[in-house]
Please model this.
Amino acid sequence: MSKLLRANFARLVKSRIFWIGVLFMAVLGGISTMTQYREMMTIADYMPNIDSILFTGCVFMPIVSAVFVGLFVGTEYSDGTIRNKMIVGHERGAVYFSNFIVCAAALFVMHLTYIAVVVAVGFPLIGNAELPVRELVIMGFVSLISLLALTAVFVLMGMLIHGKAVCCVAAMLLGLVAIMSASMIHSRLNEQEYYDEYRFSITDEEGNVHEEQQERQKNPLYVTGTKRQVYEFLYDFLPGCQLWRISSCEPVHSAVFPIYSFCITVVVTACGMFFFRRKNIN
Model:
């Protein structure tokens, strides 16, 4: 295992896609910070806080993770590296787990790069965070555990799908689904239950103004009952939804989120190793 990890980390350091991902997250952090600073300078009475952008990078991590893992792991198939590792005597479980560890470490570096840039540039320009440091640390920790679960899913795809292009496309589609589903669930759960009553004026053809009143009505898009419970569970359970909530600085269930993410990581990794051991590798 140690030899596999050393070889994978050495390949990671030389990987262009890894450094492109790090650069992308760094630039994204800089753009987010400078956008907030420019609005603060141009809009009167606008006082932004760094909290609102500190974890915005979480929204982009599903796509970044999909592209990186799809290309990094997929290259091992196209170059015959995985086959060579097993020829020299490495166990399939060790090959799988070493790829998971290196991919997780790479994505952690990308994610933390965004945060580091926002902190380094944002604190001098925008000011300190309004949320307590303890809460920010918890959010950062939870985001890493959520990212770990997402990594497990993409590594499973990368290790089981033979073909770099197919793997990368499939992973990107899953990443898009993760973001879109999080947005959809957030939108449905935040629908108001009732439309408030309101008054409006109507002018007829003769120029007379009539006052009308719209009574309070129930919102047909408001989710209730079992369906709402399912939505709430998915909003807590899915790694993409967890990252979405953290990026929006929504309240984080610091005890529940890591448990869900850890369970997903363990189950998905175990399934991936099980099927990889039985996979026919030419």
